[in-house]
Write a structure and sequence with these properties.
Elements lengths: L18 E2 L1 E3 L2 E3 L6 E5 L6 E6 L3 H17 L6 H17 L1 H12 L3 H22 L13 E2 L2 E5 L5 H14 L3 E5 L6 H12 L7 E3 L4 H9 L5 E5 L2 H11 L5 E5 L5 E4 L5 H13 L11 E5 L3 H12 L20 H16 L3 E3 L15 E4 L6 H4 L6 E7 L2 H9 L6 E5 L3 H10 L4 E4 L18 E2 L6 H4 L2 E2 L4
Parallel strand pairs: 1-5, 7-8, 7-10, 8-9, 10-11, 12-13, 12-17, 13-16, 15-16, 17-18
Antiparallel strand pairs: 2-3, 4-5, 6-20, 11-19, 14-15
This protein binds 7-thionicotinamide-adenine-dinucleotide phosphate.
Length: 479
């Protein structure tokens, strides 16, 4: 049974300004245009703040500031000096972790337990990790004299706002690039707080610039002629547009796009552990995760047992106020995303799959979707093929390992997969055949700054994280 918990007082620890400008050249400036956007709390629909909607002229100013900072300071600074700034940023993030976690949960809708225990520690870890590389780039195995690329245009989505920022900014700065970053329209607040952190860390002006706005702002940024590198995380659809628009230019591009991961449970798996992994795989962050295990492939012989255990476990999850520490499932990030999840779920029913959710009171205000299972799913169903990006699990079955591989790979995506079995040899056999950038064994959604992450096929190209993540921000030609 779900309970909706009332909002506690923790939002008092954040200081949200009513209105934000753009962060360009180390200063808060007004947009040159008049357009403004609002960001709301998806759990209550209350307006949190208003912010500038940057236009082409604003983007131009931001890129010019990044270029100047690159040419005059950052691109020339020894790696050990850059490292000091990154270590400082990491420490400030740690010091302000509580406040940033609350801000993230307010703006995004994710449970505070996740923003506090997953997002924020990983944000700090990314800055610490790449700070460590800044003075060792020639030992990264990328050639004797790697050089930065210049100005990086970075566009990120709303599902892990500050963590995606860290994935982009930490390696870019460690390698000596300067940055103009555009956060998603529905979650700008932690990126704007990060601008303040750059000031606290005394980062030279122009090294990091934050331009808020919507898709047109992102487009102006990636199309800007003075950008050397484009790093994008978001939908495959927008990724395609970006790839087309930079084709033939000198810009280097990395794209982290969508996914439709299979979580594959064999009959010999430790069942309780697998149930936890499947729940974490799809319901973590309301399923707003590019590598979410949105397809459960279960071996036919244990289907009934696994489903019964899964339903029992789902009935214990609490959906409600993201700021309540007991909440497991928070709010859906936006009305548009909720509409998309509803539409695909209705298509699942229409196409003949059976829908199940635990009984669950839905708060009147805000955007909510209960954890949902679909059984009797065929590979041709839209819920088995399309990314839902919500708390919806499609259950399919298989008999043999070969069939599991075939079904798991039967998707245009190739970001991640999970394998649950006690047999080590089977893990290796499966990992060798699954067309996925990450294969987790007896775990899921586990991240580490030292591990490269990225996709095959329509999930994008390039890797973020680890030593491989440096390559995206370096020119590796010998001098
Ligand atoms: P998108 O609609 O693609 O938006 C991503 C970012 O691109 C946002 O900042 C968006 O701005 C901006 N944007 C929109 N149109 C643009 C254009 N024409 N040119 C340049 N930028 C543009 O995705 P989303 O809805 O935010 O995020 C969900 C998707 O991201 C899912 O498909 C998910 O799988 C994928 N994702 C992938 C990963 C990895 S690591 N592979 C991680 C997280 C998310 P506005 O939001 O302001 O419109």
């Amino acid at each position: 049974m779900f309970e909706y918990a009332p909002a506690p007082e923790s939002r008092d620890i954040v200081d949200i300004r009513p209105s934000y400008g753009l962060f360009i050249n180390g200063e808060w400036v007004d947009s040159l245009g008049d357009a403004r956007d609002k960001t709301i709390n998806p759990a209550s629909e209350e307006v949190l703040a208003e912010f500038a909607h940057a236009n082409e002229a604003d983007v131009d100013r931001a890129v010019a500031a990044a270029r100047k900072a690159y040419d005059s300071v950052w691109g020339r600074l020894p790696g050990r000096e850059r490292a000091k700034y990154l270590f400082r940023i990491a420490r400030v993030v740690q010091e302000r972790a509580r406040e940033l976690a609350v801000l993230e949960s307010l703006d995004n809708g994710k449970p505070i337990r996740e923003s506090r225990d997953v997002d924020l520690p990983l944000v700090a870890a990314h800055f610490f990790y790449y700070a460590g590389w800044a003075d060792k780039l020639e030992h990264a195995g990328l050639g004797p004299a790697p050089r930065p690329l210049g100005v990086a245009a970075q566009v990120i989505p709303w599902n892990f706002p500050l963590l995606m920022l860290a994935w982009k900014i930490a390696p870019a700065l460690a390698c000596g690039n300067t940055v103009v970053l555009k956060p998603a329209e529905t979650t700008p607040l932690t990126a704007l707080a990060f601008a303040e952190i750059c000031r606290q860390a005394d980062l030279p002006p122009g090294v990091v610039n934050i331009v808020t706005g919507a898709g047109d702002t992102g487009q102006a940024l990636v199309n800007h002629p003075d950008v050397d590198k484009v790093a994008f995380t978001g939908s495959t659809e927008v990724g395609r547009l970006i790839a087309r628009s930079v084709a033939g230019s000198r810009k280097r591009v990395t794209l982290e796009l969508g996914g439709k991961a299979a979580n594959i449970v064999f009959e010999d798996a430790a069942l309780d552990q697998a149930v936890e992994g499947v729940v974490n795989g799809i319901f973590f962050n309301q399923g707003h995760v590019c590598c979410a295990g949105s397809r459960l492939l279960v071996q036919e012989s244990i289907e009934a047992e696994l489903l019964a255990a899964l339903k029992r476990r789902l009935s214990t999850l609490r959906m409600g106020d993201p700021l309540d520490k007991n909440t497991d499932i928070g709010a859906i990030n936006s009305a548009a995303q909720l509409a998309k999840i509803r539409e695909l779920s209705e298509a699942g029913e229409r196409e003949g799959a059976e829908r199940w959710s635990p009984s669950c009171p839905i708060p009147e205000k805000g955007f909510w979707f209960p954890p949902t299972l679909f059984t009797g799913v065929a590979q041709s169903h839209r819920i088995a093929r399309e990314e839902i990006f919500g708390p919806v699990l499609s259950v399919l079955t298989f008999r043999t390992p070969a069939e599991a591989v075939e079904k798991a790979n039967n998707t245009p995506y190739g970001l991640s997969a999970g394998v649950w079995t006690e047999k080590g040899s089977r893990i290796l056999w499966m990992a060798d055949r699954l067309r996925a950038g990450v294969v987790w064994a007896n775990t899921f959604n586990r991240f580490d700054p030292a591990s490269p992450f990225g996709g095959y096929k329509e999930s994008g190209y390039g890797r973020e994280g680890g030593r491989h993540g440096l390559e995206a921000y370096l020119d590796v030609r010998p001098m």
